[in-house]
Amino acid sequence: MSEPFRDPSLPTESRVRDLVARLTPDEKVGLLHQYQAPVERLGVRRFRTGTEALHGLAWLGPATVFPQAIGLASTWNPELVRSVGAATADEVIAFHRKDPAGAGRNVWAPVVNPLRDPRWGRNEEGYSEDPWLTGVLGTAYATGLRGVGPVLKTAPTLKHFLAYNNETDRCVSSSNLPPRVLHEYELRAFRPAIEAGAAVAVMPSYNLVNGRPAHLSPLINDVLRTWSGQDLLVVSDAYAPGNLYGAQAYHTDPAEAYAHAIRAGLDSFTQDDADSATTLGHIRTALDRGLLTEADLDTAIRHALSIRFRLGEFDPVEPYEEINEEVVNCTEHQRLAREAARQSITLLKNDGLLPLCAPKRVAVIGPLADVLLEDWYSGTLPYRVTARNGIAERCETVYCEGVDRITLRAEDGYVSATGDYTGGPLGIGASAEFDLFDWGGGAFAFRSVANGRHVSVGDDGVLVNDQPGPNGWEVRQTFRMEERFRGVVLRHIATDQYVTADQGTLRLTDDPDAATVFTVDLVESGAAQAAAAAADADVAVVVVGDHPLVNGRETEDRADLALPPMQEKLVRAVHEANRASVLVISSGYPFAVNWADAHMPAIIWSSHGGQEYGHALADVLFGDEDPGGRLTQTWYRSAGDLPDLFDYDIIATDATYLYYRGTPLYPFGHGLSYTRFTYSDLTLSSDDLAPDETLTVRVTVRNEGWRAGEEVVQVYTHQQRSRVKQPVRALRGFRKVRLAPGESRTVEVPVPIGDLAFWDVTRGRFAIEDASHKVQVGGSSRDIRLCAPFTVKGDRVPPRDLRALDAADHDEYDGIVLCDAARERGDAVRSAGPGAWIVFRDADLDHTAGTAALSVASTEGGVLTLRLDNPLHGEVLGTVTVRPTAGGHDFVEAATPLSPATGVRDLYVVFENEGVTVRTLGFRR
């Protein structure tokens, strides 16, 4: 063992340093791409970042498929989530052993973006709208992925940093992130997994944050990397580096953009798939132009190589050699998949119909009743246990898909389709029937009855019936039906083109006026058939929800929260035919099922539950198991209860359960049991605590029912007096307990007082106030059973020191956006229209006099008015004239003499014009 970098007895830092010193500049550049080049003279192999492992190993062939991430979260069982992560890691290693190049051990999971808005297309990938709970569950999954030994099983990567909750315009939209939301909400979800050493890599997001691309965020080096004592790898999202000089146009050319990205902390470029030549060429150009130094390269490759050393790549013994392909979809992983699915199933409503009591005949109904659907980051299902399969193992069943069967009639004849299983072009001729699927958002799919295959559009624009269903990155199997005089026209969603009958063949056209008008003739009503099936059964179970690749997925947000209209019609028809009906929702996000909540006797939700979903559902329906799930996200009654999709300020907009003051359909933490729990004897370890102490909450929970059940005991706190707006309540801890009939248990939940801190914008740090608080304990955020007061001996936020202020550190605002103050770092405030304002509350005017000086920029110029106590009519303290500047980043000083004022007052900066930017302000003598 001649080279020190191959000596496992040395510290990792020393081994990395030794290898870096042996590399030439060109070899170093070759390590900065997703597909890292080999260094054959040193025996360094190829290495690839990025194996998808969100809820099981994905994209590489059949492997165990666990419930979606939002489903795993609804178990409220971190140890179970850790076990799923560990099982996934074993299967990654098994695939890596078989194909090292195809299955790398740097995994891109978990996703820890807080689920701020349920319309987000990637909602299914996250854990919770609560950042603390997201951190707990993300840490659990990452811990399972990394393993417990000194050598990593896999290298988990947190996605996606930062403030990423919209797919609409995701590469060019900027998330407005005030300091409190940044520190209390967004960063809080990322920190635990890094701080615990569970996650060893991070992926920035596509969007901009306060006007600066997330891939260039100074928070990567200034914050993320301070949370861990070990090197943290930062990998780009796919094709995101190209946006820096492309769609975002933040830099003028690739070399400049890539140099800034590397200096900002990016270590690995996921660009142009396996073709690294172009990316590496831009980096070499940056070196030649002096935009990068070799020291910059050393820093980046140190991060990249550190992960490879920790994976044991340069050790003499192959790590985890005992794991082989027999572990993939093994019996233990199947059992774990079933248990994870069972614990994720959430009972939203139950009037006593559940659990089912030995029904002789059950009607299993709905477009999701006999299918299991894979999402974009799912593995390939090794087998499928559908709802129909699981129920059919228990009793006699009758099945009805519940979708309409139609024909499409044009002026020259009916749409025709081949019966050949491989499919063929659709034409005009003999009438063919199609099953019509409504997936919401105006998206429909057509399945040809002739061969059971879905209609798709080939690369040549011809419609063919050759696909198993909606699939792929670019889903080419969905259409909109737009009303026209005497019928409808079909608009292909993926291409935004219309369907026309061209010489007897259906194909796409760019010309809306050339679209063929079709009459939709109903052959069989899915709702009517479902009603007949339900009427002839003891119980009806109707299974509806989303298709994970349609109307809510990566690249596509939802517009509303409603069930697809045809699914809503189906649910109502089933209930009308048989009042003993159970609504089962399988989805990656909440729905506003208001009618169902008012009428259906029982409602169950789960995410798409993986290969064992049907068994788990039957376990719960028939009462073998208690429904173990609890919501980790608020279910609203309407999209009208939500702020704008692009508004990330959850504090100002009263968003998420933390600040929402309306009445949700189902609150955060909600989920019912088949038994009844009572709470008693709430005690606190102390009612007067210091900031460095921990409060221990003790409560006794008793199962008052006749059967065993699971309860998630949830502990919330509320600060009752504060300088700032505080959450209505915030989750601080929980315990999941299983109790036999009549059994009682006292549970303890520790609450570190440090967790009660908020970000004090006046001092740029976390603060814990001297204040009274309330502990709230119960079964959900709205099902509070017991309360107890306590006080915290913190400090008082002093009046604002006006000598030097960052404009972004205001207390409240109206009509402004946060923007970048410079390319590299710093935030500023820009007016979006005249009359916009920011306010600095409790400003100390006694120690200021004379002049206010502001750092400002505006290409058009403008006027700022300093007012006291009111932005419209308050006393004018001074007026600042802003002269035109060369650009948005060209700040100049503008000053104004001040009128005499004393005391502690609220200071408003009022923007009289649009497009004026303020970076700093300060009062001086």
UniProtKB/TrEMBL annotation:
Origin: domain of life: Bacteria
SMART domains reported for this sequence: CBD_IV, Fn3_like
Amino-acid biosynthesis listed as a keyword: no
Gene Ontology molecular function, alphabetical: alpha-L-arabinofuranosidase activity; beta-glucosidase activity; carbohydrate binding; xylan 1,4-beta-xylosidase activity
Stored Gene3D superfamilies: 2.60.120.380, Galactose-binding domain-like, Glycoside hydrolase family 3 C-terminal domain, Glycoside hydrolase, family 3, N-terminal domain, Immunoglobulins
Any single Pfam family the record assigns to this protein: Fn3-like
Keyword set, alphabetical order: Hydrolase, Signal
SUPFAM superfamilies reported for this sequence: (Trans)glycosidases (SSF51445), Actin-crosslinking proteins (SSF50405), Beta-D-glucan exohydrolase, C-terminal domain (SSF52279), Galactose-binding domain-like (SSF49785)
Presence of the UniProt keyword Hydrolase in the record: yes
Gene Ontology biological process: arabinan catabolic process; xylan catabolic process
Domain (CBM6): residue spans on this chain: 803-924
PANTHER family: BETA-D-XYLOSIDASE 5-RELATED, SUGAR HYDROLASE-RELATED
Function: Catalyzes the hydrolysis of a non-reducing terminal alpha-L-arabinopyranosidic linkage in ginsenoside Rb2 (alpha-L-arabinopyranosyl-(1->6)-alpha-D-glucopyranosyl) to release alpha-D-glucopyranosyl (Rd). It is not able to hydrolyze alpha-L-arabinofuranosyl-(1->6)-alpha-D-glucopyranosyl (Rc).
Family to which this protein belongs: Belongs to the glycosyl hydrolase 3 family.
Name this polypeptide is given: Exo-alpha-(1->6)-L-arabinopyranosidase
